TrEMBL record:
<dbReference type="InterPro" id="IPR020946">
    <property type="entry name" value="Flavin_mOase-like"/>
</dbReference>
<dbReference type="InterPro" id="IPR000960">
    <property type="entry name" value="Flavin_mOase"/>
</dbReference>
<dbReference type="GO" id="GO:0009851">
    <property type="term" value="P:auxin biosynthetic process"/>
</dbReference>
<keyword id="KW-0285">Flavoprotein</keyword>
<keyword id="KW-0073">Auxin biosynthesis</keyword>
<keyword id="KW-0670">Pyruvate</keyword>
<keyword id="KW-0560">Oxidoreductase</keyword>
<keyword id="KW-0274">FAD</keyword>
<dbReference type="Pfam" id="PF00743">
    <property type="entry name" value="FMO-like"/>
</dbReference>
<dbReference type="GO" id="GO:0004499">
    <property type="term" value="F:N,N-dimethylaniline monooxygenase activity"/>
</dbReference>
<dbReference type="GO" id="GO:0050660">
    <property type="term" value="F:flavin adenine dinucleotide binding"/>
</dbReference>
<dbReference type="GO" id="GO:0103075">
    <property type="term" value="F:indole-3-pyruvate monooxygenase activity"/>
</dbReference>
<comment type="pathway">
    <text>Plant hormone metabolism; auxin biosynthesis.</text>
</comment>
<keyword id="KW-0503">Monooxygenase</keyword>
<protein>
    <recommendedName>
        <fullName>Flavin-containing monooxygenase</fullName>
        <ecNumber>1.-.-.-</ecNumber>
    </recommendedName>
</protein>
<dbReference type="GO" id="GO:0050661">
    <property type="term" value="F:NADP binding"/>
</dbReference>
<dbReference type="InterPro" id="IPR050982">
    <property type="entry name" value="Auxin_biosynth/cation_transpt"/>
</dbReference>
Length: 436
């Protein structure tokens, strides 16, 4: 609790701090005034926001439920994971990746980068601190963020002028309900628990979901001599990770500066057909909309192929239709086929959990937990509420949000700081007159 005492000591003479103390003097839960924004989440988004604020000499308090930075990257990702985009599109504001890192850093390299980033900007989150609720108090004009310690179960309420939601789009696993799940005798696990295909050697494994994670898990299973199949229920765009010696993403960004999105989509599809062939012959039908237009419309990310398609083409990875039901040892698909499987891996993604703890605001949709306003306008709400990392545009989107938030808070920060200095000067002057 040393960090709490430090925060309280720094704000002991702050006007707003005294105002809150007077209002809550009869309440037993400790109240702490935060001299700056409260950031919920110590993942890449939260760190980026805190660093941008720090650059402008604005302090912040980061609250993190887990015991470490970027807990999802640390505990819920598979071993072979690499960044799917080149590092220059994934670096956080104000500090690039080390030059000796490869174009596509590994999971461990990315975690090392985040640790170095936090140390460089002297960011010290309050770990093992779960936010129970956060709500704007219209009576006082401040945010009240109620927390509970994950280890000692202590309760603390933070009072702040600004609240930055940085818990991300991937806070909780999405686990679909499939008929017969309780009967299936094999193991069923979400990709958040998958580390390596080594434990599935020689086994028939069904991967449910054909996004980037699902496709890469299939490849990893192949590399460990398992026999994977992948469920593809919907259409999907598969693009090569590299085109013409450049990353597909980087090439797309360059082309969009000069050409309309539909032209760039047609170019990407033409190159994909040349490099990858007709994916529909393997049961991977493309959507009617192009990959970039589809991404802009609903945030659906195209799959960047890192070798999975070659294994599908060779027959080592089987493509299956949607699941109808499970039995003890088999899976029945909607096309009537029945196959035996030893394990099922759910690559069914994640969802935001913001509506479960953020109260009294309609900024977030109850349906998917994302900001109702589409990119690029979803980063700012009312009464000093901000979001970072909810753009469906990965680390690049989070960096854009973080910079905007810091600039916006800086404007009101200057006004408040000037008003506080004036108030202190008046107090000193009045005190001097009294004693004189």
């Amino acid at each position: 609790m040393d960090y709490l005492k430090e925060l309280e000591g720094k704000s002991a003479h702050d006007y707003y701090h005294h105002q809150i103390k007077v209002m809550d003097k009869m309440v037993s839960t400790p109240k702490i005034w935060v001299h700056g924004p409260v950031i919920v989440g110590a993942g890449p988004s939260g760190l980026a926001a805190a660093a941008c604020l720090k650059q402008k000499d604005i302090p912040s308090l980061i609250l993190e439920k887990a015991e470490c930075l970027a807990s999802m990257w640390q505990h819920k990702t598979y071993d072979r994971l690499r960044l799917h985009l080149p590092k220059k599109f994934c670096q956080l504001p104000l500090m690039p990746f080390p030059k000796n890192f490869p174009s596509y850093p590994t999971k461990q390299q990315f975690l090392t980068y985040l640790k170095t980033y936090a140390e460089h900007f002297d960011l010290k989150p309050a770990f093992s601190t779960s936010v129970v609720s956060a709500e704007f108090d219209h009576r006082s004009g401040f945010w009240r963020v109620k927390t509970k310690g994950m280890k000692k179960n202590e309760e603390v309420e933070y009072i702040c002028q600004w609240l930055i939601v940085a818990t991300g789009e991937n806070a909780e696993e999405v686990v679909p309900q499939i008929e017969g799940m309780g009967e299936f005798q094999g193991s069923i696990l979400h990709t958040s628990l998958y580390k390596s295909g080594s434990i599935f050697c020689g086994k028939n494994v069904l991967v449910v979901g054909c996004g980037n994670s699902g496709m890469e898990v299939c490849l990893d299973l192949c590399n460990h001599n398992a026999h994977p199949s992948v469920v593809v229920r919907d259409t999907v765009h598969i693009l090569p990770q590299q085109m013409l010696g450049k990353s597909t993403f980087g090439l797309s960004m360059c082309l969009l500066k000069c050409f309309p999105i539909r032209f760039v989509d047609q170019f990407l599809l033409l190159m994909s057909h040349i490099l990858l062939g007709d994916t529909s012959q393997f049961g991977l039908n493309r959507p009617k909309l192009g990959p970039l237009e589809l991404k802009n419309l609903n945030g659906k990310t195209p799959v960047l192929d890192v070798g999975t398609l070659a294994q599908i083409r060779s027959g080592k990875i089987k493509v299956c239709r949607g699941i109808k039901r499970l039995t003890q040892h088999t899976v029945e698909f909607v096309d009537g086929k029945v196959k035996n499987f030893d394990a099922i891996i759910l690559a069914t993604g994640y969802k935001s959990n913001v509506p479960s703890w953020l109260k009294g605001t309609d900024m977030f949709s109850e349906k998917d937990g994302l900001p109702k306003k589409p990119f690029p306008n979803g980063w700012k709400g009312e009464n000093g509420l901000y979001t970072v990392g909810f753009t469906k545009r990965g680390l690049l989107g989070a960096s854009i949000d973080a910079k905007k938030i810091a600039e916006d808070i800086q404007h009101s920060w200057k006004v408040i700081e000037e008003a506080t200095h004036v108030l202190h000067d008046v107090r000193k002057k009045n005190t001097k007159i009294f004693y004189d």
